[in-house]
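Lab notebook, design round three. We kept the backbone fixed and only want residue identities now. Task for the bench partner: fill in a sequence for the structure below.
Input structure tokens:
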């Protein structure tokens, strides 16, 4: 198996967990749909390319590890919907004005709480099933020269460095977990990190031998209808890196 090695570093990241009321939570690790959208931006796909997006989502396989654990960050957002400026029709990306309704939810103060991870660094090993388009090589080229700006979950979460590992962008191994373990950890300066313990990680729930626990994650998207619709099992636990125990 071959995998691209991504070094994901940013002031803020958000991995779109299940939304509850006004809270937009973030999962501990990126989801299948989030990575699909990230790669689709690099490849130049649009929301209307639902067939290509569905195919890409079904092929993406990955294992991820926190090299530098992040800190939680909560962003409080509020807007007074009763302002005169908020009563005017707004233009949408479809080129048509969108008029606000007249119900109770269109007036008063709206509050939102957006959850982020701050100042962390993550390593991700990404593989693609089958020989369809795009190939792993094609995806690597797109990440080097993306056709659109890339962001990590939300548009405000811009990467602090190019995503591909500059020295070992492509690594081979028996499975994604072993590939991830073989790749050395980094610190925030991009230097090899000497770590004597174990690091938080997730990997496919495919029977790979490694202590950890499996849990369902709701990270699959119906790209045709533009909504989250689907779950899968993912393994999570602590792993040693590059032979360190």
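Proposed sequence:
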């Amino acid at each position: 198996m071959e995998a691209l090695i991504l070094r994901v570093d940013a002031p803020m990241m958000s991995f779109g967990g299940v939304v509850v009321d006004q809270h937009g939570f973030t999962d501990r690790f990126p989801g299948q749909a989030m990575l699909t959208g990230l790669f689709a931006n690099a490849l130049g796909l649009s929301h209307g390319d639902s067939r290509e997006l569905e195919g890409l989502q079904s092929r993406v396989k990955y294992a991820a590890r926190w090299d530098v654990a992040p800190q939680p960050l909560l962003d409080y957002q509020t807007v007074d919907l009763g302002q005169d400026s908020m009563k005017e029709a707004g233009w949408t990306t479809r080129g048509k004005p969108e008029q606000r309704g007249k119900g109770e939810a269109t007036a008063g103060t709206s509050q939102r709480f957006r959850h982020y991870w701050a100042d962390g660094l993550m390593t991700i090993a990404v593989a693609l099933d089958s020989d369809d388009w795009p190939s792993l090589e094609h995806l690597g080229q797109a990440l080097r020269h993306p056709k659109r700006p890339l962001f990590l979950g939300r548009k405000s979460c811009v990467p602090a460095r190019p995503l591909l590992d500059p020295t070992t962008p492509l690594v081979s191994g028996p499975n994604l977990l072993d590939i991830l373990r073989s790749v050395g950890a980094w610190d925030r300066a991009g230097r090899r990190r000497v770590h004597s313990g174990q690091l938080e990680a997730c990997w496919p729930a495919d029977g790979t031998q490694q202590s950890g626990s499996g849990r369902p994650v709701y990270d699959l998207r119906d790209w045709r209808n533009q909504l989250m619709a689907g779950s899968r099992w993912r393994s999570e636990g602590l792993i040693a890196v590059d032979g360190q125990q």
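Keep this in mind before ordering anything: The mean pLDDT is 87.
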